[in-house]
Amino acid sequence: MHGNSTPVLARARRFVAERLTSALYRERAPLALTVFTVPGEPVSFVEATRERFEPFEVGQKWGQPWGTVWFHAAGNIPLHWEQPRTSIQLVVDLGFTDGYPGFQAEGLVYTEDGTILKAIEPRNQRVPLRTPAGGAVQFYVEAASNPNVAGHFDFSSTLLGERDTAGTAPLYQLRRCELALLDVPVWELVQDFRTLTGLAGELAEQLPRRAEILVALERAMDAMDPDDVAGTAPLGRDLLAEVLSRPASASAHHLYAVGHAHIDSAWLWPVRETVRKVARTFSNVLELIQDTPGFVFAASSAQQYQWLKEFYPQLFARVKQQVAAGTFVPVGGMWVEADTNLPGGEALVRQFVEGRKFFREEFGIEPPEVWLPDSFGYSAALPQIIAGTGARWFLTQKLSWNETNRFPHHTFLWEGIDGTRVFTHFPPVDTYAAELSAAELARAERHYAEKGRANSSLVPFGWGDGGGGPTREMIAAAVRAENLEGSPTVELSTPAQFFEAAQREYEHPPVWSGELYLEFHRGSYTSQAATKRGNRRSEALLREAELWATTAAVRGLDAYPYQALSAAWRTVLLNQFHDILPGTSIAWVHREAESAYAAVAETLEEVIARSLRRLAGDGDTALAFNAGPYPLDGVPALAGSVAVARDGVTVTGSEGGFRLENEFVRVAVDGRGLITSIRDLVTDREIVPPGEAANLLQLFRDVPTTWDAWNIDEQYAHARTDLVDADSVMIAEDTTGRATVRVTRSFGSSLVVQEVGLSAGSTAVDIVTRVEWHEKQKLLKLAFPLDIHADRAASEIQFGHVFRPTHANTSWDQARFETVAHRWVHVGEAGYGVAVANDCTYGHDIARTTRPQGGTTTTVRLSLLRAPRYPDPSADQGVHTMAVSVRAGADIPDAIAEGYRLNLPVRQTTGAAAVAPLFRVGTPAVVIEAVKLAEDRSGDVIVRLYEAFGSHATAQVAAGFGYDSAIETDLLERAVATSNLLDRGDGVTVALRPFQIVTVRFRRGGTS
């Protein structure tokens, strides 16, 4: 052995690459090839095999971007291949580059009768065959020529994200398609070498264990004949057996290894490609399960199982068998692995309602864990939702991406805004797609934050993002590291086995209270504004459609449209996936999402119109319907009322601009179209600081270092342009009920038209901004400097709100320079506050600054638009319309009401008479978030409430219909064991803690 150990490892790695790998196959046999190129979108096996196949040769090019080619291969397995210690295999190399699986060509192998064998991918090119030597074989390979949109993740602009712009030149060259005889001892020796070289590379140089491994490696290489690897491989294995058999120390970290394949439901590929990725990955897993005892695979997302059921029913049946056997484990219980920052409260609940219903109906199970390894931060409302659906545990990995602060725990209790706690694990391996390499295992042990208190963590292993899943090499690594000196120990496991053991091991873990903010990917609150608007609008329409359809059904006026509403929900839930709604996918994905939202809107508008016609009856009385939880414009909540016109607003010229005024507010718009004054006439208080202006559009350079569509870097603020020059400022509307000033600005290649309006009887200034946006790598914000001394700001999240500091005292505060809010934010000081609401914006920054003349300004800025170049070079280009309101003299209850007003405007129609609400709530602190019929189609009425102010509340909820009984349920509409609900016969009384969600089921005797 050399005195310096480094050359031994280098020699070992070269020995594997040049000697062992080249000797993996004893013999090869060619296959005759023909090909059918699909002219458009993918076709099924049956359709493809009806087509004419043309001759093809290895070495030919194939596959234009996003195309599909079907290869047919036929041949005979040589009779003499019936040899000991070998495996007969089909080997296919579609022209793979040395890149990550899931980001380039992929294939799915079928037998001639249409049975799926497994997938072909860059690091998983072999299909073990069970046909005996001497037999004839035929295969079909459905090959997808997906372009590598990721490239080397240099984030350069690319046109590959749309089929129409990606070109037509073939991307790949078929390198191999043949039968091969695998030498099993040589393959096993390769795995031995990889385990030991990896382990030696992680051990300190002075450790005897490292020296022992290096000596064993050198002896094995010296003893083997490089010209007869097959003949001497058993000797090599024998010489390594002793060092591989040394047991781990009693204090070694213990890893529960769970087979996994994180499959993005869309990202750098369209949804239709994800459907095929699921089939490829699941077929890989099913093949691996056949002869790998102890191996368990966990997969999330009911949507992906639904696709398999719809498009690959035979494969789905095989999955179902393995679920029953316990080797294929559905996890997560959600429809997709959704973003949790942006979806509304009811939508986040429905992720679980739809997901858990699917798993229960198809497999008879409900996953006990919530599985979100890759979403971009986690709402503080989530613990209560998790518990409310019957789940017990939560897993995430994404916090390892924090760019400023290291998250202090790996196993902890996560506490939500209502006080609910959920047992949570954050794997210290820092990846959801481990290979179980020695480096990864050592990293998990090194990073584990609970040392001395607990000693176990979970490691998800298998190729992910684009799918692929675990491989035989990964299983081999797990087996060798099961009990190996110098390494953490590894146990193949289910997620539930890990969580049960972790809870036993760590009875009193630390508590993390509030949101799990990801210090990265802050641009995802703003990118692809049209997708975000589609989501917000869809959520509002779903609320309206369910409310009015329920009201009509309960009153015997119409049938409830279960199917239409379920289909709409599932479309919206799919598009809340964590690379769609955040705006971080290719153009194809967002084009399809926006088209889907348009179809959802059309369906729901029809449902709403039909329900309102039934409710209003025939007549020409002007009626207004309010789907919001608070009275609005004289209309009760959840009801229809005779429309009432208001007056009492004026607009006059003032100092080169205009002044809008009603009994509550006076607003000054200057000649630049900026708001120089918002005066609260009730308290006689000015909220725009002296010398400053609100409604200020600000343009920033937006060139993040990496991850363009995902990130806003803190340095964006260094290059700012205030858009203060107006093309025109004019009166657009002047009636007794409403006055509006229109401001037109042009800048760069873009045009903005804003309407600043004030309505009679309103305390809010409304600003509608229409942008023809044609900038690149720019960020457009809308700023409201406020004369408020606020040390914190409240931001709406699902079923409540969170407070965040307006200062940057700590590194945690500094890192939170861009935040998410739903319909409103509120800043206040003792006795006075201001609410800023929106109808489709999520990204905000709120900061306090000191004025030169004394005092402080709290500025609320909304992030309206971005223009990243990657992965969609046309991101956000086009026309956008967004509404914002500023309500002076507002407390948090006012802010909540303002958010609902802006997002659920009153609907005008005609009919015979007013329509009474199904429910009335006796306190404004308790908000009705959803009214619907029960999922089981029993005809029972479900109402979901939450406490919105952040205080204890007791609510009288009156029912405007007859019912048999009322019970409290969980979020899945099942009776809870303990309840504070009192059924009064005409409604219920319910006591709620701060931000608590309560679901009430009104039983109606089995009506439908």
Question: Any descriptors?
Answer:
1008 residues; 9-stranded antiparallel sheet; 6-stranded antiparallel sheet; 18 helices; 25% helix
Q: What can you see in these coordinates?
A:
There is one protein chain. This protein is of the alpha+beta class and 1008 residues long. Helices cover 25% and strands 30% of the residues. It has 18 helices and 53 strands. The chain has a 9-stranded antiparallel β-sheet with strand order 32-33-34-35-44-41-40-37-38. It has a 6-stranded antiparallel β-sheet with strand order 3-2-5-10-7-8, covered by helices on one side. Strands 31-30-36-43-42-39 form a 6-stranded antiparallel β-sheet, with no helix packed on it. Strand 51 and strand 52 form a beta hairpin. Helix 14 packs parallel to helix 16. The radius of gyration is 31 Å and the shape is elongated. The model has no long low-confidence stretch (mean pLDDT 97).
- The helix content, as a percent range, equals 25-40%
* Spans of at least 5 consecutive residues with low confidence: none
Question: DSSP helix count?
Answer: 18
Distance between the termini: 82 Å
* Most strands sheet: 9 strands, antiparallel
User: Total number of β-strand segments?
Assistant: 53
What proportion of the residues form beta strands (DSSP E)?
25-35%
Strand order of the biggest β-sheet? 32-33-34-35-44-41-40-37-38
Q: Mind telling me the C-alpha Rg? A: 31 Å
> So what's the overall shape?
elongated
Q: pLDDT average, as an integer?
A: 97
Structural class by sheet pairing and helices? alpha+beta
